[in-house]
Amino acid sequence: FIFTQDGYIDFMEYVAALSLVLRGKMEQKLRWYFKLYDVDGNGCIDRHELLNIIKAIRAINGGDHETSAEEFTNRVFDKIDVNGDGELSLDEFVEGARKDEEFMEVMMKSLDLSHIVAMI
Length: 120
Known about the structure:
This protein has seven helices and two strands; from the N terminus they run H-H-E-H-H-E-H-H-H. It is mainly α. Helix 2 packs across helix 5, helix 3 (47-61) packs across helix 4 and helix 5 (90-99) crosses helix 6 (101-110). The radius of gyration is 15 Å and the shape is globular. Keywords: Calcium, Metal-binding, Repeat.
């Protein structure tokens, strides 16, 4: 999918994204999540970007967590930042999510639309 970089989402972009989230293959979803979470568009997700993502996901989903968002972010980087540069490349993000069940679960929860689909 090609999305414009104008800071807005038009209807066709929304439909394409919804289709991907609902029916896309896991790797396609992870690649899309990566682009979504790479806030500054530099091709990497740094600790600050991931921390903000984790905080937002927790705020939306609620619940009690054994670790703080900061501790979780640090654990993710320790496990999946293979080259240790403090940033997650697309490959590190995709491979890390595949190998780390907890990280994958958090990423999948971030755009879980099942409750919306149930209402439709």
